[in-house]
Design goal:
Elements: E1 2-6, H1 11-22, E2 26-30, E3 51-54, H2 61-71, E4 75-78, H3 85-90, H4 92-113, E5 116-122, H5 146-165, E6 169-174, E7 176-178, H6 187-196, E8 201-204, E9 210-215, H7 216-229, E10 235-238, E11 243-245, H8 246-260, E12 271-274, H9 289-295, H10 303-316, H11 318-324
Parallel strand pairs: 1-2, 1-4, 2-3, 4-5, 5-6, 6-10, 7-9, 8-12
Antiparallel strand pairs: 9-11
Length: 337
Protein backbone atom coordinates (compact mmCIF):
# COMPACT_ATOMS: atom_id res chain seq x y z
CA UNK A 1 0.00 0.00 0.00
CA UNK A 2 1.23 3.51 -0.76
CA UNK A 3 0.93 5.61 2.38
CA UNK A 4 1.25 9.36 2.61
CA UNK A 5 2.43 10.23 6.11
CA UNK A 6 2.16 13.85 7.18
CA UNK A 7 4.63 14.86 9.86
CA UNK A 8 6.83 11.89 9.06
CA UNK A 9 10.00 13.60 10.27
CA UNK A 10 8.52 14.20 13.71
CA UNK A 11 8.70 12.00 16.76
CA UNK A 12 5.65 9.75 16.24
CA UNK A 13 5.49 10.17 12.47
CA UNK A 14 9.05 8.97 11.96
CA UNK A 15 8.34 5.87 14.05
CA UNK A 16 5.38 5.15 11.77
CA UNK A 17 7.52 5.68 8.67
CA UNK A 18 10.29 3.38 9.85
CA UNK A 19 7.87 0.62 10.88
CA UNK A 20 5.73 0.91 7.74
CA UNK A 21 8.77 0.50 5.49
CA UNK A 22 9.72 -2.72 7.29
CA UNK A 23 6.21 -4.01 6.62
CA UNK A 24 6.44 -3.50 2.88
CA UNK A 25 4.53 -0.24 2.44
CA UNK A 26 5.54 2.52 0.07
CA UNK A 27 5.93 5.81 1.96
CA UNK A 28 5.52 9.42 0.90
CA UNK A 29 6.77 11.46 3.85
CA UNK A 30 5.33 14.99 3.86
CA UNK A 31 6.95 17.31 6.39
CA UNK A 32 7.91 21.00 6.36
CA UNK A 33 10.68 20.47 8.94
CA UNK A 34 9.64 22.95 11.60
CA UNK A 35 11.81 23.40 14.71
CA UNK A 36 10.74 19.92 15.93
CA UNK A 37 11.16 18.10 12.62
CA UNK A 38 14.35 16.08 12.21
CA UNK A 39 15.06 14.43 8.89
CA UNK A 40 17.69 12.40 10.75
CA UNK A 41 14.79 10.53 12.39
CA UNK A 42 14.24 8.67 9.12
CA UNK A 43 17.89 8.31 8.07
CA UNK A 44 17.61 4.53 8.33
CA UNK A 45 15.06 4.43 5.47
CA UNK A 46 15.95 7.48 3.39
CA UNK A 47 17.71 5.44 0.70
CA UNK A 48 15.02 2.74 0.59
CA UNK A 49 13.44 2.44 -2.88
CA UNK A 50 9.94 2.59 -1.35
CA UNK A 51 10.59 5.89 0.46
CA UNK A 52 10.08 9.45 -0.84
CA UNK A 53 10.39 12.71 1.06
CA UNK A 54 8.42 15.83 0.14
CA UNK A 55 9.24 19.04 2.01
CA UNK A 56 5.77 20.60 2.04
CA UNK A 57 3.80 22.54 4.63
CA UNK A 58 0.26 21.20 5.07
CA UNK A 59 -0.88 24.82 5.38
CA UNK A 60 -0.01 25.26 1.70
CA UNK A 61 -3.06 23.72 0.03
CA UNK A 62 -1.72 24.03 -3.52
CA UNK A 63 1.62 22.39 -2.74
CA UNK A 64 -0.06 19.67 -0.73
CA UNK A 65 -2.55 18.99 -3.50
CA UNK A 66 0.29 18.69 -5.98
CA UNK A 67 1.93 16.01 -3.83
CA UNK A 68 -1.32 14.04 -3.72
CA UNK A 69 -1.78 14.41 -7.49
CA UNK A 70 1.76 13.26 -8.18
CA UNK A 71 1.90 10.26 -5.84
CA UNK A 72 -1.75 9.07 -5.72
CA UNK A 73 -1.58 7.56 -2.22
CA UNK A 74 -3.92 4.76 -1.17
CA UNK A 75 -4.19 6.10 2.38
CA UNK A 76 -3.08 8.97 4.58
CA UNK A 77 -1.73 8.80 8.10
CA UNK A 78 -2.15 12.37 9.27
CA UNK A 79 0.25 13.16 12.10
CA UNK A 80 1.53 16.63 11.18
CA UNK A 81 0.68 19.00 14.03
CA UNK A 82 2.00 21.53 16.46
CA UNK A 83 1.91 19.56 19.69
CA UNK A 84 3.58 21.31 22.63
CA UNK A 85 1.04 22.68 25.11
CA UNK A 86 3.42 25.29 26.51
CA UNK A 87 4.11 26.69 23.04
CA UNK A 88 0.37 26.84 22.36
CA UNK A 89 -0.08 29.05 25.42
CA UNK A 90 2.57 31.49 24.18
CA UNK A 91 1.60 31.42 20.49
CA UNK A 92 -1.78 29.84 19.74
CA UNK A 93 -2.09 31.12 16.15
CA UNK A 94 0.37 28.61 14.72
CA UNK A 95 -1.60 25.81 16.36
CA UNK A 96 -4.80 26.97 14.69
CA UNK A 97 -3.30 27.42 11.24
CA UNK A 98 -1.47 24.08 11.32
CA UNK A 99 -3.77 21.83 13.30
CA UNK A 100 -7.09 23.16 12.01
CA UNK A 101 -6.50 24.64 8.56
CA UNK A 102 -3.72 22.18 7.82
CA UNK A 103 -6.06 19.30 8.63
CA UNK A 104 -8.72 20.89 6.42
CA UNK A 105 -6.21 20.91 3.55
CA UNK A 106 -5.29 17.26 4.14
CA UNK A 107 -8.94 16.23 4.17
CA UNK A 108 -9.68 18.15 0.99
CA UNK A 109 -6.69 16.63 -0.81
CA UNK A 110 -7.68 13.15 0.35
CA UNK A 111 -11.25 13.79 -0.74
CA UNK A 112 -10.01 14.77 -4.20
CA UNK A 113 -8.01 11.53 -4.40
CA UNK A 114 -10.67 9.39 -2.73
CA UNK A 115 -8.18 7.85 -0.30
CA UNK A 116 -8.58 6.69 3.26
CA UNK A 117 -7.47 8.90 6.17
CA UNK A 118 -6.31 7.89 9.64
CA UNK A 119 -6.45 11.13 11.61
CA UNK A 120 -4.11 10.92 14.62
CA UNK A 121 -5.10 12.92 17.68
CA UNK A 122 -4.63 13.12 21.45
CA UNK A 123 -6.46 12.26 24.64
CA UNK A 124 -6.03 15.90 25.70
CA UNK A 125 -9.18 16.76 23.73
CA UNK A 126 -11.18 15.09 26.51
CA UNK A 127 -10.03 17.46 29.24
CA UNK A 128 -9.00 16.39 32.72
CA UNK A 129 -10.00 13.35 34.79
CA UNK A 130 -10.56 13.09 38.50
CA UNK A 131 -8.78 10.46 40.60
CA UNK A 132 -10.71 7.61 38.98
CA UNK A 133 -12.09 6.68 35.57
CA UNK A 134 -10.58 6.70 32.08
CA UNK A 135 -11.24 8.22 28.67
CA UNK A 136 -13.04 6.11 26.07
CA UNK A 137 -14.17 6.68 22.51
CA UNK A 138 -17.46 8.10 23.81
CA UNK A 139 -16.02 10.59 26.32
CA UNK A 140 -17.31 14.11 25.73
CA UNK A 141 -14.81 16.65 24.44
CA UNK A 142 -13.61 19.26 26.95
CA UNK A 143 -10.30 20.74 25.70
CA UNK A 144 -8.53 23.03 28.17
CA UNK A 145 -5.53 24.45 26.26
CA UNK A 146 -5.06 26.13 22.86
CA UNK A 147 -3.29 22.94 21.73
CA UNK A 148 -6.07 20.57 22.77
CA UNK A 149 -8.73 22.92 21.41
CA UNK A 150 -7.02 22.96 18.02
CA UNK A 151 -6.80 19.17 18.00
CA UNK A 152 -10.44 18.87 19.05
CA UNK A 153 -11.40 21.08 16.11
CA UNK A 154 -9.37 18.90 13.75
CA UNK A 155 -11.09 15.75 15.07
CA UNK A 156 -14.47 17.31 14.41
CA UNK A 157 -13.42 18.25 10.88
CA UNK A 158 -12.28 14.69 10.17
CA UNK A 159 -15.57 13.23 11.37
CA UNK A 160 -17.57 15.86 9.48
CA UNK A 161 -15.77 15.04 6.23
CA UNK A 162 -16.68 11.40 6.76
CA UNK A 163 -20.34 12.14 7.45
CA UNK A 164 -20.82 14.88 4.86
CA UNK A 165 -18.59 13.75 2.01
CA UNK A 166 -18.36 10.02 2.75
CA UNK A 167 -14.58 10.32 3.05
CA UNK A 168 -13.25 7.09 4.60
CA UNK A 169 -11.90 8.43 7.90
CA UNK A 170 -10.78 6.83 11.15
CA UNK A 171 -9.85 8.94 14.20
CA UNK A 172 -7.40 7.85 16.90
CA UNK A 173 -6.73 9.48 20.27
CA UNK A 174 -3.58 8.48 22.09
CA UNK A 175 -2.09 8.97 25.52
CA UNK A 176 1.33 10.56 26.17
CA UNK A 177 4.05 9.11 23.98
CA UNK A 178 7.69 8.58 24.86
CA UNK A 179 10.74 6.87 23.39
CA UNK A 180 13.72 7.48 21.08
CA UNK A 181 13.85 10.63 18.93
CA UNK A 182 11.49 12.67 21.13
CA UNK A 183 12.23 16.37 20.82
CA UNK A 184 13.77 17.77 24.03
CA UNK A 185 10.95 20.09 25.02
CA UNK A 186 8.78 17.26 26.33
CA UNK A 187 9.05 15.93 29.89
CA UNK A 188 11.07 12.73 29.50
CA UNK A 189 13.87 14.01 27.24
CA UNK A 190 14.00 17.22 29.30
CA UNK A 191 14.61 15.18 32.45
CA UNK A 192 17.28 13.03 30.82
CA UNK A 193 19.21 15.84 29.15
CA UNK A 194 19.03 18.25 32.08
CA UNK A 195 20.24 15.50 34.39
CA UNK A 196 23.18 14.67 32.12
CA UNK A 197 24.10 18.35 31.97
CA UNK A 198 23.90 18.72 35.74
CA UNK A 199 21.13 21.29 35.38
CA UNK A 200 17.94 21.61 37.46
CA UNK A 201 15.24 19.14 36.46
CA UNK A 202 12.02 21.20 36.35
CA UNK A 203 8.82 19.63 37.68
CA UNK A 204 5.62 21.63 37.35
CA UNK A 205 3.70 22.34 40.56
CA UNK A 206 3.99 19.47 43.03
CA UNK A 207 4.49 16.87 40.29
CA UNK A 208 1.14 15.29 41.13
CA UNK A 209 -0.28 15.41 37.59
CA UNK A 210 -0.85 11.90 36.26
CA UNK A 211 -0.29 10.71 32.71
CA UNK A 212 -0.77 7.40 30.87
CA UNK A 213 2.48 6.64 29.00
CA UNK A 214 2.61 4.91 25.62
CA UNK A 215 5.88 3.76 24.05
CA UNK A 216 6.15 5.32 20.60
CA UNK A 217 6.85 2.01 18.82
CA UNK A 218 3.67 0.57 20.34
CA UNK A 219 1.76 3.60 19.10
CA UNK A 220 3.16 3.20 15.58
CA UNK A 221 2.12 -0.45 15.63
CA UNK A 222 -1.39 0.53 16.77
CA UNK A 223 -1.75 3.08 13.96
CA UNK A 224 -0.77 0.56 11.32
CA UNK A 225 -3.19 -1.93 12.90
CA UNK A 226 -5.98 0.67 12.67
CA UNK A 227 -5.02 1.41 9.08
CA UNK A 228 -5.15 -2.26 8.13
CA UNK A 229 -8.18 -3.49 10.07
CA UNK A 230 -9.94 -0.50 11.63
CA UNK A 231 -13.57 0.22 10.79
CA UNK A 232 -14.23 3.32 8.69
CA UNK A 233 -16.03 6.01 10.66
CA UNK A 234 -14.88 4.63 14.02
CA UNK A 235 -12.64 6.12 16.68
CA UNK A 236 -9.98 4.22 18.60
CA UNK A 237 -8.49 5.28 21.94
CA UNK A 238 -4.88 4.11 22.16
CA UNK A 239 -3.37 3.95 25.64
CA UNK A 240 -0.23 2.55 27.20
CA UNK A 241 -1.89 1.14 30.33
CA UNK A 242 0.89 2.82 32.32
CA UNK A 243 -0.38 5.58 34.61
CA UNK A 244 2.11 7.39 36.82
CA UNK A 245 2.40 10.77 38.54
CA UNK A 246 4.95 13.10 36.98
CA UNK A 247 7.15 13.23 40.07
CA UNK A 248 7.27 9.43 40.25
CA UNK A 249 8.17 9.25 36.56
CA UNK A 250 10.98 11.77 37.06
CA UNK A 251 12.35 9.76 39.98
CA UNK A 252 12.23 6.57 37.91
CA UNK A 253 14.28 8.28 35.21
CA UNK A 254 16.78 9.59 37.74
CA UNK A 255 17.19 6.07 39.14
CA UNK A 256 17.83 4.64 35.67
CA UNK A 257 20.43 7.34 34.99
CA UNK A 258 22.09 6.61 38.35
CA UNK A 259 22.52 3.01 37.17
CA UNK A 260 23.58 3.76 33.60
CA UNK A 261 25.78 6.82 34.09
CA UNK A 262 26.43 7.52 37.77
CA UNK A 263 27.21 11.09 38.72
CA UNK A 264 28.88 12.58 41.78
CA UNK A 265 25.47 12.89 43.47
CA UNK A 266 22.11 11.18 42.78
CA UNK A 267 20.34 12.79 39.82
CA UNK A 268 17.18 13.17 41.91
CA UNK A 269 19.01 15.91 43.83
CA UNK A 270 18.54 18.06 40.71
CA UNK A 271 14.73 17.92 40.88
CA UNK A 272 13.37 21.47 41.15
CA UNK A 273 9.69 22.27 41.59
CA UNK A 274 8.65 25.24 39.43
CA UNK A 275 5.55 27.33 38.84
CA UNK A 276 2.79 25.20 37.35
CA UNK A 277 1.51 25.55 33.80
CA UNK A 278 -1.69 27.65 33.49
CA UNK A 279 -4.71 25.33 33.32
CA UNK A 280 -2.59 22.20 33.81
CA UNK A 281 -4.84 19.14 33.42
CA UNK A 282 -4.64 16.96 36.51
CA UNK A 283 -4.95 13.45 35.09
CA UNK A 284 -5.19 11.61 31.76
CA UNK A 285 -5.89 7.89 31.36
CA UNK A 286 -7.19 5.87 28.44
CA UNK A 287 -9.31 2.73 28.53
CA UNK A 288 -8.02 0.85 25.45
CA UNK A 289 -10.51 -2.01 25.68
CA UNK A 290 -12.23 -1.09 22.39
CA UNK A 291 -9.11 -1.42 20.22
CA UNK A 292 -8.06 -4.49 22.20
CA UNK A 293 -11.41 -6.25 21.84
CA UNK A 294 -12.14 -5.32 18.21
CA UNK A 295 -8.68 -5.24 16.59
CA UNK A 296 -6.66 -7.38 18.96
CA UNK A 297 -4.11 -4.66 19.70
CA UNK A 298 -2.58 -3.88 23.06
CA UNK A 299 0.75 -2.35 24.12
CA UNK A 300 3.69 -4.70 24.49
CA UNK A 301 6.20 -2.42 26.24
CA UNK A 302 6.10 -2.01 30.00
CA UNK A 303 6.83 1.45 31.36
CA UNK A 304 9.91 0.23 33.24
CA UNK A 305 11.45 -1.39 30.17
CA UNK A 306 10.40 1.44 27.85
CA UNK A 307 12.03 4.04 30.08
CA UNK A 308 15.16 1.90 30.31
CA UNK A 309 15.38 1.69 26.52
CA UNK A 310 14.69 5.41 26.17
CA UNK A 311 17.44 6.39 28.61
CA UNK A 312 19.86 4.06 26.82
CA UNK A 313 18.98 5.60 23.45
CA UNK A 314 19.68 9.15 24.63
CA UNK A 315 22.96 8.06 26.19
CA UNK A 316 23.99 6.43 22.92
CA UNK A 317 22.81 9.20 20.58
CA UNK A 318 24.35 12.42 21.81
CA UNK A 319 25.06 13.53 18.22
CA UNK A 320 21.29 13.58 17.58
CA UNK A 321 20.32 15.64 20.61
CA UNK A 322 23.36 17.91 20.46
CA UNK A 323 22.16 19.03 17.04
CA UNK A 324 18.70 20.06 18.26
CA UNK A 325 19.52 21.67 21.60
CA UNK A 326 20.15 25.04 19.94
CA UNK A 327 16.73 25.14 18.28
CA UNK A 328 14.10 27.71 19.18
CA UNK A 329 12.79 27.45 22.72
CA UNK A 330 14.79 24.40 23.81
CA UNK A 331 15.92 24.74 27.42
CA UNK A 332 13.80 27.84 28.00
CA UNK A 333 10.65 27.93 30.14
CA UNK A 334 7.61 28.36 27.93
CA UNK A 335 3.88 28.58 28.56
CA UNK A 336 3.68 31.01 31.43
CA UNK A 337 0.54 32.58 29.98
Amino acid sequence: MKLLVTGGAGFIGSAVVRKAITRGHEIVNVDCLTYAGCIENVASVQSHPSYVFEKVDIRDAAALGAVFDHHHPDAVLHLAAESHVDRSIDGPETFLTTNVMGTFNVLQAARHQGCRVVHVSTDEVFGSLGPTGAFTETTAYDPRSPYSASKAASDHLARAWHTTYDLPVIVTNCSNNYGPYQFPEKLIPTVILNALAGQPIPVYGAGANVRDWLFVEDHADALLCVLDTGEIGQSYAIGGEAEVANIDLVRMLCGLLDEAKPGSVPYADLITFVEDRPGHDQRYAIDPSHIRDTLGWRPTMTLAEGLRQTVAWYLENQDWWDAVLSRDGVGRRLGRG
